[in-house]
Task: inverse folding
């Protein structure tokens, strides 16, 4: 069935890219995150600069800080060293690349040894990847690492009408197969899941489908789910919003889905708090509510709701 969404449609309304340097990472952060065993560990997250992702998902704005050409060989190790020189030591590292780690034009395969060498101090390594980019190169890279390995994959939404319209070009079965393969290879899986994807506009339905997607990810073997409130800002999302095809989630619905997903007790659930202000319309309670969600990310227990006259 034609979803009406294609790479061309998604790209048509894009603004300009930011100019990026292939020898510099986009960003680097030092954070704390609770691990599968329940202990809280320090995490260095390095956002690598690389060739743009070949998939063009409807809601994605990660292309902004990417290169048009294949990443030059040797550039990724230089970026990791650059970030390491500015970050404290950590037990876990996330290498996020606005795309797929196992896309050879984004992260050249000839750099795997050098990358793994630079990560030898970490006990756990997390990268992101598309469920269709699966092959022998994954266990090969895993075997180069000293620590354990985890792959984060966007499942986004299993809603049957929404899923094809996200232009991610996956089905539930693609995701299940990829996830089960990784688990069979001793690799942990983390799922990225959207709250209020485009083409689903009813608040209750959005909460229910987000939770169904979380459950599906755990059924497929995920050890963690990260819930991302869908944001506009990439061109097509603004158009869909004008057309009534996308409604941003409220902070209240994000809290609700986070509470309920944690209560499922199936594995770790994280709320993505990046740019959270976007979803708040009350400055009185926002900071307390953000802090509560941050504490819930670390503690993995539902805390008492923040009361405010706005609710
Ligand atoms: S696969 Fe990921 S990085 Fe690529 S377009 Fe989709 S959401 Fe963006
Ligand atoms: Zn309030």
Result:
């Amino acid at each position: 069935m034609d979803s009406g969404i294609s790479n061309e449609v998604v790209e048509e309304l894009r603004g300009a890219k930011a100019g990026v340097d292939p020898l510099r990472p986009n960003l680097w952060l030092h954070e704390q995150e609770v691990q599968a065993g329940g202990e809280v560990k320090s995490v260095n997250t390095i956002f690598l600069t690389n060739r743009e992702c070949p998939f063009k998902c409807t809601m994605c704005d990660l292309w902004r800080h990417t290169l048009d050409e294949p990443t030059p060989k040797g550039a990724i190790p230089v970026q990791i060293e650059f970030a390491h020189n500015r970050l404290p030591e950590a037990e876990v590292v996330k290498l996020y690349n606005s795309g797929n780690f196992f896309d050879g034009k984004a992260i050249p395969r000839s750099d795997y040894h050098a990358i793994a060498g630079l990560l030898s101090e970490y006990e756990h390594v997390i990268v992101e990847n598309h469920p269709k980019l699966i092959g022998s190169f994954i266990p090969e890279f895993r075997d180069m690492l000293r620590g354990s390995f985890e792959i984060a994959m966007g499942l986004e939404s299993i809603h049957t009408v929404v899923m094809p319209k996200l232009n991610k070009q996956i089905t539930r079965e693609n995701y299940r197969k990829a996830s089960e393969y990784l688990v069979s290879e001793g690799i942990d899986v983390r799922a990225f899941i959207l709250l209020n994807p485009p083409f689903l506009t009813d608040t209750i339905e959005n909460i229910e489908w987000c939770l169904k997607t979380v459950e599906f990810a755990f059924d497929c073997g995920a050890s963690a789910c990260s819930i991302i409130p869908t944001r506009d800002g990439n061109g097509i999302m603004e158009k869909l919003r004008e057309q009534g095809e996308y409604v941003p989630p409220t902070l209240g619905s994000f809290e609700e889905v986070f509470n309920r997903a944690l209560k499922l007790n199936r594995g770790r659930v994280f709320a993505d708090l990046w740019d959270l202000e976007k979803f708040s319309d009350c400055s009185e309670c926002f900071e307390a509510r953000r802090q509560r969600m941050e504490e819930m990310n670390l503690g993995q227990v539902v805390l008492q709701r923040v009361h405010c006259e706005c609710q």
About this structure: The chain has a mean pLDDT of 97. Residues 53, 55-57, 60, 62, 98-99, 130, 154, 168 surround iron/sulfur cluster (ligand 1) (CB under 6 Å). The chain has one domain: 7-299.
